[in-house]
Design a protein that fits this description.
By secondary structure, this protein is mainly α. It contains nine helices and two strands, in the order E-E-H-H-H-H-H-H-H-H-H. The N and C termini lie far apart (98 Å).
């Protein structure tokens, strides 16, 4: 509101004058309004309600037994299909899987894990495009446990076996401490030789794990060329990883020593 003077010289308050903006009719946006958020968009709730209904619908079958409904694809042709792949079948019998766990873990080995985890530990990511879960993470954990137990065994075995004394050309004496005894027997080459994938695959084949493995070989008539050694070794480690999560590290360490390291030659 501006103060103006009349013709009589007495000031009075004039009515407010509404000025026209210089941006009106030009299509330009004032700087004060250039960073304002756009108005919220309102969508129909029908699509979200449909998704919520699908998410809340319980699956009729467990994941190990069938592909989840929302992960199935329809009407997409499989251009990489090979006729020989249709002939390759995997195990779907829970009793056959339980017998395999008894061979691997011993008596009552089929009762250490839940039904879903037992199938997950023997499922490779090549099976059903990984839509039913796979054992990569369990295998990673189980391999760390087996390698740790192998290292501890090598250190303990080296302390009981005296190491040949080395003579230094300059007459120096190496530092000695009880806590360092046995480290000379722990080498990466020795550990890799014990846990070689071909040896662990032979152990898994001895347990007849190939009969319950769920995977899709690239060459169904050539398991060796399809990487069966890696698949079996990964499943063996995955079982140890699953036991550590469900039964604890003490049980997993004991089984790793008795059922994997001992048959490979690392006996207590």
């Amino acid at each position: 509101m501006s103060r103006v003077a009349s013709h009589t010289g007495h000031p009075f308050f004039a009515l407010p004058v509404r000025r026209r903006s210089v941006y009106q009719g030009t299509g330009l946006v004032p700087p004060s309004q250039s960073h304002r958020q756009p108005p919220p968009k309102h969508f129909s709730a029908s699509s979200s309600r449909r998704q919520d209904d699908l998410a809340s619908t319980p699956s009729e079958e467990p994941r190990w037994k069938a592909t989840p409904p929302r992960m199935r694809t329809r009407g997409v042709p499989n251009r990489s299909f090979r006729p020989e792949h249709a002939e390759f079948q995997v195990n779907e019998d829970p009793e056959k899987l339980d017998r395999a766990y008894i061979r691997v873990l011993g008596i009552d080995g089929d009762k250490l894990l839940t039904e879903e985890v037992k199938w997950l530990a023997v499922t490779h990511k090549s099976f059903d495009h990984g839509r039913r879960g796979f054992n990569d993470r369990l295998s990673f954990l189980g391999k760390r446990i087996v390698e740790l137990q192998a290292s501890l065994h090598m250190i303990a075995a080296s302390t009981t076996t005296p190491q040949p004394a080395s003579v230094d050309a300059l007459g120096r004496e190496p530092f000695k401490h009880p806590a360092l005894e046995g480290l000379a027997g722990l080498t990466q080459e020795r550990k890799q030789a014990v846990l070689d994938k071909e040896r662990t695959a032979q152990l898994a084949d001895k347990y007849e794990m190939v009969s319950v493995m769920r995977w899709k070989p690239k060459l169904p008539r050539n398991f060796k060329g399809s990487g069966i050694d890696v698949v079996l070794t990964q499943a063996l480690y995955a079982i140890i990883g699953a036991i550590s999560l469900q039964k604890g590290g003490e049980v997993a360490n004991r089984i790793a020593r008795e059922r994997i390291l001992a048959p490979l030659g690392l006996r207590a």
